[in-house]
Amino acid sequence: MIALVVILVVALFFIGIVNRTKSLLGGRVGPGLFQHVHDVVRLFRKGAVISTTSSIVFRLAPTISFVAILMACTLIPFGTQPALLPFQYDVVAFAYLLALSRFVMILAALDTGSPFEGMGANREGIYGMLVEPAFFVVFGSLAILTGHTSFTELFSTLHVGSGGVSILISVLAVYVILQIAMIESSRLPIDDPKTHLELTMIHEVMILDHSGFDLGLIMVSSSMKFALFGLLLANFHLTPSAPLWLLLIIAFGVNIVFAMTVGAIESFRARNRMKRNPQFILTLTSVAVLIYFSVLILTNKLVL
Amino acid sequence: MITIHHLPLAVRLDEIPVVSVEEAFACINQYLRVGQSRHVFHMVALPHTDGHRVITVLADDHTHSVSLTSCIVRTGNPVPSLTPSNAQMHIFERDLWERYGLEFTDHPWCKPVRFPVDSFHRKGIDDYPFFRLEGGESHEVGVGPIHAGVIEPGHFRFQCTGEDVVHLEIKLGYQHRDVEGELERARTLQRRSVLAESIAGDTTIGHAWAHAMAIEVLTEQQCDPITEHERVIALELERMAIHVGDLGALSLDVAWQLGSSYFGALRTPLINFFQLWCGNRFGKGLIRPGRNRFPLDEERRKAMRLMLAQFEKKFTLLANEMFSLPSVVARFEGTGVVTHDQVAAIGAVGMSARMSGLGRDIRRSHPHGSYRALDHVSVIEHGGDVLARAAVRRREVDASMRRIRIVLNELSEMSGSDAPTVPSTFTPNTLAISAVEAWRGEVVHVAVTDQDGQIQAYRIKDPSMHNWFALALAVRNNEISDFPICNKSFDLSYCGHDL
Amino acid sequence: MLQSLKILATTGRQTIPDVTTATLPKSYRGRPVISDTTCATDCTMCKDHCPTTAIAITDHHVSLDLGACVLCGECADVCPEQKITFTNDHQLATNDRSALIIAEGNVSGISFDPNLVRSEITSTFGSSLKLRQVSAGGCNACELELNACGNVNFDMGRFGIEFVASPRHADGIVITGPISLNMSEANQICYDAIPHPKIIILTGACAITGGIFANSPALQRAYVDTHHVDLYVPGCPPHPLTFINGILTMIRSRRT
Amino acid sequence: MRLTFMVACVVSLVIAFVTSIPAVTVLVTGMAWSADIGSVTYVADSFSAFMVLVINTGSVLAALYGVRYLADDPDGRSLTESILHGTSFVALHAAMIGVVISSDLYSLFYFWEAMSISSFLLVLFDARQTKARTAAIRYILQMHIGAVGILVAIGFVSSAMGGVTYSLVHDYAASHQTWIVLLPLAVAFAMKAGLFPLHSWLPDTHAAAPSHVSGLMSGVMIKLGAYGLIRFGLLTDPSTELGTVLLVIGIATALFGIVNAIGQRDLKKLLAYSSVENMGLIVMSVGMAFIARGIDAPYIEIAAWSGVVLHILHHMLIKAVLFQSAGNILHGTHTRDLNNLGGLIHTMPGTVNLLLLGGLGISALPGSSGFVSEFPMYISGIKTMMMSSTSISMLGVFSVVTLCLAGGFAIIAFTKAIGIGALGTARTKAPLTAHDPHWTTRFPQWLAFGGALFIAVAPGMFIRALSGVLYGLSEKHIPHDLLTTLDTVGIGQAVLIIVVGIVWLLRMLATRTKPVAEGPTWGCGFQEGDARIQYTATTYADSTIEIMSPVTDVSVSYRHIDPADMFPRTRSYHTEEKDLIANKVFDPLAIGVERVLRALAVLQSGNMRSYILYAFVFIVVVVVLTLAEVL
Questions:
Q1: DSSP B155
Q2: In terms of domains, do C119 and C43 share one?
Q3: Residue C122 belongs to some domain of the structure
Q4: Where residue C12 sits, what CATH number does that domain have?
Q5: For residue B245, what pLDDT is reported?
Q6: What does the alpha-carbon distance between residue A131 and residue A279 come to, in Å, rounded to a whole number?
Q7: Which of A216, B238, B312, D82 is the most buried (most CB within 10 A)?
Q8: Does some domain include residue C108?
């Protein structure tokens, strides 16, 4: 329960911090921390224009996508505090809920019959597919390491500094999850939410035709997705012995650092050429495989 | 064919030879066969008793000369097209076809250019025959007229197979507001000047200067050297401002925030200097026939030197970073290549030619004003890709900065004389041509007066007329997601093309 | 990375801290002022030299329509009485078309009528406003200035005001250019694609009256005549400060 | 036509009813059923009983759909054709039941042949089309290559053991080299199951067959290949090695199938390749179970078997939904080419809704039966990863990566099928004039979907009900926490569906008072809307095919624009998707064989003198060889 609250609170300011960081590093004042919230409130108040080409799929997709992300949030624990709906192998459900969100948004994009949205949909499908092996290999490796297969149990024993966890594995795992978070949230270097060009975007171009409440819902979903991964990263750092207030501080601290990292990355580098993206994502899988072998060595399982 | 050295020029209409269509076309073919040093400047049609008198203006970069020939094309009497042998003629012939209904028997691509209000064919803007891939397996992407960013309208039609672009066709005309017609109808110098400044807001100085020169030559007035020097500064400052802005825009399109922010910030002092100088950030209101309205006095020269010094430091730092950042260079390198042969074939001008090794530069080939005394060296790159275009911009900023400093120093040792009064009627039955190397390339203005000394035809050629085709070629066989940086690297004018 | 940090350090924060009080150099040609000195008999120099139709002379009284004025300053140059002068005041935007007509002796700034602002504008867009720009036959100068609004110096984004790609995401349309015939239909399509409530902002003399192109046969300005305009931003092109301050005044206005 | 098939449908129902009662009894009591008919013994243990139920459900769904589908058939059929079709249908149903209750290789062979021939006749339904004829003939040829495998096995076993009952097969395998009997049988089963690289008959046949038959073949018949592999795998005391081989083949099949599904623009071929993928996943899971048995990991084994059983059920139901939707679309638009479709959701909403739900299911997304059936596979995969042996652990990694990649590819494939086929705007006139068929065609679809939904929300219940089957396969009881996990997943799925409903209601409430306008899709203000500005089935697959080019075979016919050609003339762009194996291996092989035969045909000159010459040469050779004491 506490995890869900943390995710919702982080979702409120996460994008704000990313943008604040970017503003700071771009030499400008920039929008306020809660500009994102203002934007959503405005959208919830607005009417909508719906394409005559589109169907119920287009209208329903943001709702399903939102619920899928919401359900994914219920799987994430907060340190030793269990998640709302923990069960064995919920890692699988987590990945598939994100896939569900992707599936319906792709269909909604194709529903409009616009070439740009088709383009975004196509890219989203491919990159989403390519990123999954890395996710599963990392969490499989962590399962080997801890002997647990649900997020709740996994993080109740695993955190930086817990016995037997080498710093290397944590660092690599955090790196991979960070990159997955960036890809899933359509940020640099795969996608750029700020370019505003139909031909180069992935996620943003898929929602070109959504308006009003539905668009607001999509924006809420994407901030929650960020917070979701933020908490996932934070869980690596939540030591069970610490008091709750300290854990909260750590969790928010990790999220703030995460957001600032995203902002910094987006300030200092350019995005990839589109055709380089698959290669980039596959590199991530090889890092995941590296983690897997490190874990095997660490648990004395590697017999050659 | 009549050949004249030095621009701007004024020539009496009856001095331009009138030959048969076949002879004229053979003559043009002959002229252009010499090679890349020659290209077509403009093609103007004037109404004639039983058709149109088509005057072709050709330029030779080596001999610094311009040649004119003309022929009478009768209405409803198809003539052979020059395009199959010289691709660069296509846009002018299409213009004649669209505007006056002149028919060409073998033009391979006779399609509307800008859907003008006085079009012969009266076609609506949504009636355009796009090139298509048959078979229903490839798809098209249509972008525009309203683009994602705050930019001008134009429609791009891509023939795609997945992420790859097979062919791009560009349909323009949305910005058409009949500037040429308004210039012909205008009766005061003020109105003409403001209209000329509104041809393309990003080339205010270039067009205003070309217009002023055309009027000056039609009224046989000379500007004093100070005025000419100040115009050089204005033109180079405009070049710098746009190039810096475009480097920022290129950074934005590859999502490099640092570049987009700080190049954007670096453009500000440049255009703010215009604001300090003439009260407008784009230099509107500065250049008038025969004079500049706002002097570049000692105080402003000092401010400019200071501004340039600060600018240079930051610009060098940022540009070095841009051209050494792997993620940026990886996006630019090899993207949107237009080869030297292609550039030469389509008659590209200005920086769109210079990025692929074709040194076409009015400041060198047909110098005007103070450029005659300055031995100009053009910036030339050979890659033909986005990186080459970015590099041309970067190096031209540096070159312009040096040029401005030299001219500033010369200015402080010059003393002025009174500006001439420019009359509002002109030499009758005359054709005047002026050309300015604006930041995109050659801006050519052609003014033709009638027997009353009033302007009967005013024709403007923005460099974009030639160069849009280069963009179409650049995108072929590229990824569609690279189109924005290709487009931005050329940064062509929609309104200059649509007029 | 080090290089990037060096750039950050040398350039630093560029933003104008407070746009509402920022001033421009004296040489900037902003709001014109017409003094109430009497003209020489039958002198129409200013009207004759005006490149647009901004200046009207009725009963020897000169008035200037900022909606048509391109701020070239030619009238000030030719007036033998120096009756017309240009100040550096950039706060020119208003929601009241009549406020743009500057009469003799009117030295105060351009007035803004908060009572004309629709209530849904202040209630919905108070801290977030996304705009879709339509460029319809202008010369690209307005577009460049609108782009400049979002740059580091003017940083319009800090007020939650941004230009967006899709009209579906937008709350209003910003029109630049005199609306060419070829662009009129696309403009209408774009407006129709914006969800309610939505606003219309006309930017630049061209958009407001047609400006220098007012009499061109290639225009189709029925759209402007048939829709309620929420904000006029005069100028040729309007300064970024003019645009930002105009919008801020509108979304922050309180009815009296 | 309609009447004859109705009779077939009734007969099929009767068969289903009659056979289901003993099958259910077996499942409930856990006692095997057996009967002697003549000298042959038929046995149905719990696994057979389960398969009988699967066969019955699939056949009944197909029969119900077929009645209406054939009524809407545009082509007139003769009475003979109709009777042949109806009879073949019933024969197929019966033959399939026969296959799973056989207890000796002879009867297996007879039923196997009956199954192949009856399904061949069913595929031939559209024999007037060359494509259907070619596909059917290829199918029957390949099936006979498989059948030879069974004959070979019979030869080995009967010569060594004097009989061919399954228990003798077991004894033979125990006393001889296992692979001698297993390999020829495996060829037969793998051929039927459409396992890589023996799958190439499957897409063409499925596309050519009438849709109720495609659904039946894909949903049920090819599963019998898996049945055979499981049955005989278990008979031969499966080892880790056998498991690994099956796992690898399964992985190859799954990935090859789904990647090629993306490449297809024929809707039914796309579905067919997706069946290849699902067979791959099933076989992979079987392999996993065998591995687990070999290393004595009961939890993994049970999880893998649960995956197999649930996936067989899920795939049977969902493929029925999908193929029947495809049938409706084919009848409505007279095309299966996705490049000619689009916008069907406006003209055929009833059909497209089912296509959507089926697409969610087949992509194994949360809220669907596919998710619960792949979930135990993930459990077995991750659990295997956690095993102590490095090589076993890596097999786990491979299976997990395969599952998630297959899931990702399936999303691309089915967003293509639905998004390009049913959404957006119509690419040709065909979809514009289409309309939903009579509701009765959708009745079996909803029935099937209802079943799938039931699995989705109550997987634990199914596993409990099928505990006998799992016990029969693994001889182990289901661990309690596996059941709890599956129960939680089921509840989670139900919660997901309910929360979607709640949020949707809230959204309706929140937007009730908001002004909603309708307009064209935002196309940058361009006036002329055009169906050409949409991704096509070909271009949507383009990027994936490019990345996966080693396992796909798409030929492009297009004349490139010369760089010097400024004003290109109109040209066409055409692609053709082929099956890599069929095109690069089997076809050249067939052509080679044909070439050899043709070369030999030169001898057949028709000239009497040459025959005399041959006879002479023959005699000389024989004499020479005899003299040399070779003969």
A1: E
A2: no
A3: yes
A4: 3.30.70.3270
A5: 94
A6: 11
A7: B238
A8: no
Q: What is the pLDDT of residues B140-162, one digit of tens each?
A: 888 879 998 899 999 999 999 88
Neighbours of chain A (3+ CB pairs under 8 A): B, C, D
pLDDT at C133 over 90: yes
CA distances from B292 to B193, B230, B286 (A): 12, 8, 6
Nearest-Cα distance to chain C for B123, in Å, is 11
Residues C135 and C225 in one domain: yes
pLDDT in tens, A159-175: 666 555 567 787 888 88
The pLDDT tens digits of the residues spanning B208-264 come to: 999 999 999 998 888 888 898 999 999 999 999 999 999 999 999 998 989 999 999
C107 falls within a domain = no
Question: Residue C247: pLDDT band by 50, 70, 90 thresholds?
Answer: very high
Structural domain including C223 reads: 114-252
D525/C187 CB distance under 8 A = yes
Which pLDDT belongs to residue D75? Answer: 67
Helices D369-385 and A90-111: crossing angle in degrees, nearest 10, is 140
Interchain contact D508–A (C-beta under 8 A): no
Q: Are D130 and D141 in contact (CB under 8 A)?
A: no
D182 is written with which tokens? 């297993």
DSSP D534-559: S--HHHHHHHHHHHTGGG-EEEEEE-
**Nearest in space to B370 (alpha carbons), one of B226, B213, B205:** B226
For residue A304, what pLDDT is reported?
56
Closest by CA to D364, choosing from D396, D405, D329, D394, is D405
The alpha-carbon gap from D210 to the nearest alpha carbon of chain C, in Å, equals 44
User: How far, in Å, CA of A156 to CA of A81, rounded?
Assistant: 8
Q: Are D358 and D448 in contact (CB under 8 A)?
A: no
Looking at the DSSP bridge assignments, the partners of residue D266 are D337
C195·A47 Cβ contact <8 A: yes
CA distance A15 to chain B (A): 16
Task: Give me the number of domains chain C comprises.
Answer: 2
Please report whether residue C152 resides in a domain. yes
Give yes or no: residues C69 and C94 share one domain: yes
Give the H or E element holding residue C182: helix C181-192
CATH of the domain at C235: 3.40.50.12280
Query: Which of C102, C122, C146 lies at the terminal end of a domain, its last residue?
Result: C102
Q: Which of C171, C189, C191, C196 to mutate to test the interface with D (most CBs of D within 10 A)?
A: C189
Stretch D472-480: mean pLDDT:
89
- Report if pTM > 0.80: yes
Closest by Cβ to D566, choosing from B87, B136, B164: B87
Q: What is the structure's pLDDT at A116?
A: 87
- Are C194 and C93 contained in the same domain? no
CA-to-CA distance for B206 and B290, rounded, in angstroms? 15
Considering the domain architecture, whether residues C167 and C209 belong to the same structural domain is answered as yes
Q: D483 CB near a chain A CB, below 8 Å?
A: no
Instruction: Looking at the structure, tell me whether residues C119 and C242 fall in a common domain.
Output: yes
User: Does residue A47 sit at the C interface (CB-CB below 8 Å)?
Assistant: yes
Query: In angstroms, rounded to a whole number, what is the distance separating the alpha carbons of residues A3 and A234?
Result: 11
Q: Do A26 and B482 touch (CB under 8 A)?
A: no
Give residue C58's pLDDT. Answer: 85
Q: Which two tokens stand for residue D146?
A: 């498989």
- Residues with pLDDT less than 70, chain A: 159-166, 195-196, 302-304
Domain end call among C102, C129, C161: C102
Give the number of beta-carbon pairs within 8 Å between B and C.
203
Q: Positive or negative, the Cα torsion across C206, C212, C218, C220? A: positive
Assess whether C196 and C79 both reside in one domain: no
Q: What is the ipTM of this complex?
A: 0.93
Question: Chain B closest CA to C222's CA: distance in Å?
Answer: 15
For chain B, give the mean pLDDT: 90
* Residues C131 and C45 occupy one common structural domain: no
Helix H or strand E segment including D98: helix D79-101
